[in-house]
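Design a sequence for this backbone.
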């Protein structure tokens, strides 16, 4: 029986991917690396330090920096990113998502947040959505990042439900893989050819339908 939803944040509830991209692009440019949207796609859902490693490998500079220098680069990027977040308001909630959260609360589903971002609490507060969630996974407590299932398993656990009773929502390939590995029902939001491993896909947040998710979940698990 479906009892709760475990949400990714970036790209599902709000479009911070553009801000991550802008901040990484500037950071990479300072060390002579150019990144494009294809590289950006690979940064979705993975941690800050993993993102930096992807960028360094892309620029063939993976052996050029000490751990302390890498920390400094990641901090620089984060400072720039946090500066961009300061302008966020509830107007930055992706189309349809507030109504979807309202519908979930009205139906008494448990809601957990499973974002890899250490900035997730700030973002939810800026969007005015913190009260919708019963629990938030703290990414600092995790051993493995997406596509490892840990964050989605923990999200369900924090709201007292089994993975088999949960739906996970994601916009990243690594995230869909994490949800599937956790044994939850995966809902992809975005290009269905990119997110083809999802149990159910919506091309955009405006198309997300609770009834469609409930039906598909029933068909798979019922
Ligand atoms: C995820 C984003 O939500 O958070 C990734 O999709 C990002 O792109 C990760 O790297 C970590 O975010 P932060 O805010 O902790 O640097
Ligand atoms: Mg995401």
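Sequence:
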């Amino acid at each position: 029986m479906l009892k709760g939803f475990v949400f990714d944040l970036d790209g599902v509830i709000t479009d911070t991917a553009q801000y991550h991209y802008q901040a990484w692009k500037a950071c990479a440019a300072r060390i002579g690396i150019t990144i494009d949207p294809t590289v950006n796609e690979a940064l979705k859902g993975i941690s800050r330090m993993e993102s930096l490693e992807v960028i360094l490998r892309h620029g063939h500079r993976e052996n050029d920096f000490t751990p302390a220098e890498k920390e400094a680069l990641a901090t620089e990027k984060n400072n720039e990113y946090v500066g961009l977040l300061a302008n966020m308001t509830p107007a930055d909630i992706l189309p349809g998502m507030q109504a979807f959260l309202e519908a979930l609360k009205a139906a008494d589903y448990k809601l957990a947040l499973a974002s890899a971002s250490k900035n997730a609490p700030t973002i939810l507060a800026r969007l005015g959505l913190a009260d919708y969630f019963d629990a938030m996974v703290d990414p600092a407590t995790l051993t493995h990042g997406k596509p490892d299932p840990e964050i989605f398993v923990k999200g369900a656990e924090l709201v007292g439900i089994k993975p088999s009773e949960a739906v996970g929502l994601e916009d990243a390939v690594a995230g869909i893989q994490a949800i599937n590995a956790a044994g939850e029902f995966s809902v992809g939001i975005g290009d269905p050819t990119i997110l083809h491993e999802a149990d159910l896909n919506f091309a955009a947040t405006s198309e997300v339908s609770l009834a469609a998710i409930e039906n598909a979940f029933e068909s798979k698990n019922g």
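The mean pLDDT is 96.
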